[in-house]
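Internal tracking record. Fields below are filled automatically when a chain is submitted to the structure queue. Please do not edit lines marked as system-generated. If the sequence contains nonstandard residues, flag them in the REMARKS field before resubmitting.
Queue: standard
Priority: normal
Entity type: single polypeptide chain
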Amino acid sequence: MGFVNILKLCVGAESIGDLATWQEENAARWPAGQAVHVTRMWPKREAEVLAGGSLYWVIKGVILCRQRITALERVETGDGISRCAIVMDREIIRTESAPRRPFQGWRYIGPEDVPRDLMLSRDGDDSLPPELERALAEIGLR
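SYSTEM-GENERATED OUTPUT FOLLOWS
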């Protein structure tokens, strides 16, 4: 059996730095070394997601990074509706840029359709502005 990934909009984030900052600010609420994202729908392909999948984040219309999914857990949010907590490694792995149109919720994305991971950055490397990342992705250079 292979694995499948999840593609999710990172609503409210302008950059990977915003995602990292939000996760750092909320780290005390989660298990050590983990990050959590709660979503309304439970993946029907749970076994495939847990067989090596990652959550790929779309930031400002472009896939820019991913986090490895380690678990799916049921949570109650106080409104009587059971939701899915996607538990991930805290490490945010930068990927090549890949433009994506807006969508609601999340989508499955197979390993053959995801952008490649970027090499680890060196100290002092700057992130490109989101507009430049998007422009480069649109012409196929990132």
